[in-house]
Amino acid sequence: MNADFLPQKGGFRNLIAYKLSDNIYNLTYLFAHKFLKKGDRTIDQMVQAARSCKQNIAEGSAASTTSKETEIKLTNVAKASLQELLLDYEDFLMTRGQRKWKIGDPPLEQTRSVIRQDNPTEYYIDKAQAWNSETFANVVVTMIHACDRLLYKLIEKQKLQFLQDGGIREEMSRARREYRSNQTDYNNRKTT
Description:
This is Four helix bundle protein. The protein is mostly helical. It is 76% helix and 0% strand. The longest helix has 33 residues, at 133-165. The chain is elongated.
């Protein structure tokens, strides 16, 4: 009998996209409370969008054991939450007349290089103490773009896994057929 037909999943903490989303959440929390006025609804909206990204990656990963559909949907919700957060940061920069980094700008290229090193949140929190609002927002925007690309790739991988392996109903049917086949073989050997 194949008792492992439903292997437990949920290793989201090892996903680079999750680690980056965790950094985005922690930095957004600091940013919103440092650079937005107390009582500004944008504080809660930004923090919630950042949290939604990270939490939906985790929930989707955990749900993958029984539902590829749910996994894909929640990963996409995480991606959508990032887009909401990106707009908040871009609005912040625009409404304050601050510059958004462009491709080829040395600070953008340097930030991209640092992000690829998979640094822990503490690293960024320490660095953030010296950042002004423009630098802070641009660093997080750069992280958002990187995380968005990772989530796109993750969704593509999840879709491929579904096409190759199917969903839970197919897994359960395969396991049941295998069980029945093994029982029939066992019974046939027993009677001969």
